[in-house]
Design goal:
Chain A: It holds the Pfam family Ribosomal_L14. The complex is a heterodimer of chains A (134) and B (221). Chain A has three helices and nine strands; from the N terminus they run E-E-E-H-E-E-E-E-E-H-H-E. With 134 residues, chain A is mainly beta. The longest helix of chain A has 7 residues. By secondary structure, chain B is an alpha+beta fold. Chain B has a domain of 147 residues: Roll (SH3 type barrels), CATH 2.30.30. In chain B, strands 4-3-2-1-5 form a five-stranded antiparallel β-sheet. The chains are: A mainly beta (134), B alpha+beta (221). At the A-B interface, strand 6 of A face strand 4 of B. Strand 6 of chain A pairs antiparallel with strand 4 of chain B, so a sheet runs across the interface.
Chain lengths: 134, 221
């Protein structure tokens, strides 16, 4: 149930950690898994593995910065989502993956499980990056 | 000269009237006679009051059985019929029946094998008993994200449900929703499930090695 002002985790390595939804695209309802939204980057990710000395390199690695407006795809929702076979899936958090306007993911890696609905919505590139889908 | 007109003597008309009436009375009395009807036909015409004797018997049929009597609890029968189709062996019903002491209960770690896709394992935190719509809620942690899945136990998509590990003590709640709280969260049960699968694979391997090998390959894909 992603709508205006919803805060989501960004699970790719584009550099965003927490993003806020500002618009759900192509519909007047809330967004579900596989829907495209427009987000504002609220919090940048500081990569712990690079250490405090490599602050310059982290900022260079970050493809997006705080305050950037980007497109994203919802990959997990805390709202229950019923599948056509009757099973229901629910995650503990809301998460998304940043994409460019052409629909390609900005990051190169994903960390975290994503919903299988992405296949139905033809986000196969995100599915192939994901370590696991359910 | 005074004319004896009826206008002058209004009561004079009574005399003629009464005379006329007397005459009529005599006439009616003379006409009233006892009449006996004589039938001229051979067959007696039945009088309306008399009962008619029927010689030919009319065939009668009993009323059809009322559907309300035939199907006393239609929904119950329908559910039973559906379950008999979806679960012919009755194993699934037995696994979740309340009378079975070996049944799967809330708090147990269950593994749901699916016909399409990977099996899903998790702690059962809710069993929703609704006849053919009976479902179970499993919770697990995948890649450090909590995931909950509802599965219908009679779904044709569900190949099998296995009890991986039982809860040591019976849960004193019907729904263990408190397992979502960080204090009570069991975290990932993947290790327990993997150990269970390995032990099952070893057991199966001793009996029929070929099948186990094939299954392992299938899972890797």
């Amino acid at each position: 149930m992603i709508q205006l002002k919803t805060m989501m985790n960004c699970i790719d390595n584009s550099g965003a950690a927490i993003v806020e939804c500002v618009k759900v695209m192509k519909m007047k309802r809330h967004a579900k898994i596989g829907d495209r939204v427009i987000v504002v980057v609220q919090k940048q990710r500081n990569f712990s593995e690079s250490g405090p000395g490599a602050s310059v390199s982290t900022s260079a690695a970050n493809k997006v910065r705080r305050g950037d407006i980007r497109h994203a795809v919802v990959v997990r929702t805390a709202k229950k989502l019923q599948r056509p076979d009757g099973s229901v899936v629910k995650f503990d958090d809301n998460a998304c993956v940043l994409i460019n306007k052409a629909g390609e993911p900005i990051g190169t890696r994903l960390n975290g499980v994503v919903g299988t609905e992405l296949r139905k919505m033809k986000w196969s590139k995100i599915l192939s990056l994901a370590p696991m889908h359910l | 000269m005074a004319m004896p007109t009826p206008t002058l003597r209004p009561l004079s008309c009574w005399k003629s009237l009464l005379r006329h009436a007397r005459h009529q009375k005599v006439a009616t009395r003379s006409l009233t006679t006892y009449h006996k009807s004589v039938t001229f036909s051979k067959y007696e015409i039945p009088t309306p009051g008399a009962s008619i004797e029927v010689t030919r018997k009319i065939k009668t049929y009993p009323p059809p059985q009322s559907p309300a009597q035939k199907f006393k609890e239609p929904l119950k029968d329908f559910t039973k019929h559906q379950i008999s189709i979806l679960d012919p062996t009755g194993a699934r019903t037995h696994l979740f029946s309340k009378t079975n002491p070996e049944a799967a209960k809330v708090g147990d770690i269950l593994l749901v094998r699916l016909k399409t896709g990977d099996p899903f394992a998790g702690v059962c935190i809710n069993i929703r008993r609704r006849g053919v719509d009976t479902g179970i809620l499993l919770r697990n942690e995948l890649t450090r994200v909590g995931v909950e899945m509802w599965y219908k136990i009679y779904s044709p998509n569900v190949e099998g449900i296995e009890v991986v590990q039982r809860r040591e003590k019976r849960a004193r709640r019907a729904r263990l929703t408190y397992l979502r709280k960080p204090k009570h969260d069991m975290g990932s049960v993947q290790n327990i499930v993997l150990a269970y699968q390995r032990s099952r694979g070893a057991m199966r391997g001793s009996v029929q090695e070929k099948k186990g090998g094939k299954k392992g390959k299938g899972k890797k894909k």
